[in-house]
Amino acid sequence: MQALVIAAHGSHLNPDASDPTYAHADTIRETGAFDEVREAFWKEEPHFREVIRTLESDEVFVVPLFISEGYFTEQVIPRELRLDDWDPEKWDSDGTSASQATLEATDVGKTIHYCGPVGTHDAMTDVIVQRAETAMEDPDVGEGVGLSVVGHGTDRNENSAKAIEYHSDRIADRDRFDEVKALFMDEEPEVDDVTDYFESDDIVVVPLFIADGYHTQEDIPEDMGLTEDYRLGWDVPAAVDGHRIWYTGAVGTEDLMADVVLERAADAGADIGDAREAVRELAASAAEAGTDSSPEPNAGAGAGD
After folding, report:
1. CA-to-CA distance for 182 and 195, rounded, in angstroms?
2. CB contact set of 183 (below 8 Å; sequence gap of 6+)
């Protein structure tokens, strides 16, 4: 038997923070690829510390629903899961290349395949592009359009910026959008000055966050000048400095994120059959029908992204 654990941050303050985790888990559960699928959180129940002990499967694939390699993925999650002999060097990563490490949870006799975070997987590039398509309701979006991938950024962890820059570079290499730029909240270049970095009339802004919360629904919209007060909402697109800003909300709410979780598990050796194809078809159908599960970009705010 094989099990999948999706490990996410969660929030004590924002009840919606865990919604993407449950949504993607439900999607994967419906494919039947795993005998068991569990959600686990740092700030909510069920907690990281207990989740493996609730599983019957002997082989467990743990996929962190986080954007970057860093404190949570390298220290908190392995510690709370009680993974024997864990060391970040087992990932042999440069900050964006973590794949998986196979470890033992000896107290319960289970083999744990601990995967890198979803945010650094190559498949995330497709999710960002899909997010832009969803925002502009155009499957061919690109020509005449600029794309900004926005991250938190921090001087405390250089890997925080690496994931954003990595996917921005990959998208730029495709020559689909006229301009592609990585911007940040807490380091240069800053998202506050988004219009300074683009000549395109239309700019799609995709925050590389897992869930919508106060960063994506309060800070970034106000910082970009979409609204003076997030509580009043904003237009999509919004007119700012002679440009039209198409702000999408957190990329982690995109239906295609379930595919990235599956890719991480498959890279670690999980037998997922045709689950990826099923998830991609569901995501494409939802986008085509206009029933994408992601929230409206100006639908409110809270902590937890």
Report:
1. 13
2. 148, 149, 150, 151, 189, 190, 191, 194, 197
Residue holding tokens 């129940």?
Answer: 45
Please count the structural domains in the chain: 2
Q: Cα separation of 29 and 298, whole Å?
A: 30
How does DSSP classify residue 106?
Answer: T
Closest C-alpha to 206, from 236, 173, 243: 236
- In the numeric block, which tokens belong to residue 2? 């094989």
Q: 141 and 245 in one domain? A: yes
69: containing domain: 2-120+254-289
Q: What is the pLDDT of residues 209-228, one digit of tens each?
A: 999 988 999 999 999 999 99
Give residue-wise pLDDT tens across range 13-69: 887 899 999 999 999 999 999 999 999 999 999 999 999 999 999 999 999 999 999
- How many other CB atoms sit within 10 Å of the CB of residue 230? 18
One domain, residues 128 and 248: yes
Helix (H) or strand (E) holding 163: helix 159-173
CB-CB contact of 72 with 9 (8 Å)? yes
CA–CA separation, 81 and 123 (whole Å): 26
Q: Residue 302: inside a domain, yes or no? A: no
Interstrand relation of 59-64 and 36-41 (parallel, antiparallel or unpaired): unpaired
CA-to-CA distance for 95 and 56, rounded, in angstroms? 33
- The per-residue DSSP string of 117-131 comes to PGGGSTHHHHHHHHH
* Collapsed DSSP state (helix, strand, coil) of residue 61: strand
Global pTM? 0.91
User: 96-102 — which CB contacts under 8 Å span 24+ positions?
Assistant: 96/69, 96/120, 96/159, 96/162, 96/163, 96/166, 98/69, 98/73, 99/267, 99/268, 100/264, 100/267, 100/268, 100/269, 102/268
Give the helix/strand (H/E) hosting 149.
Answer: strand 145-151
Name the nearest CA neighbour of 297 among 109, 122, 132, 68.
132
Report the CATH number at residue 129.
3.40.50.1400
